[in-house]
Amino acid sequence: MKTAEPIKVSQEMYDRLDAQARARGVSIEKALEFILQEFDKIREREFIESLRAEGLLVSTPTASPNTPRNFKPVPITGEPLSQTIIEDRE
Known about the structure:
- By secondary structure, the protein is mainly alpha-helical.
- It contains three helices and no strands.
- The termini are far apart.
């Protein structure tokens, strides 16, 4: 892993990060990693909401609660169904 430049934060911010990390039993680096992942999730939700607001997205697909966790689709050979439909319409 490449060594990065240190960042400067106030003592108050450092103490807050340290307290959060200790409460979770992780290092400050792991706590920051978690925070960044949460930011990514928020950014994704905001993006989806902006698409909905513009009318570009009606709903987001979700997994069925009945779908087994180890579900793997069966590979199908041959041309795609969309191609068959296009050829039938011609």
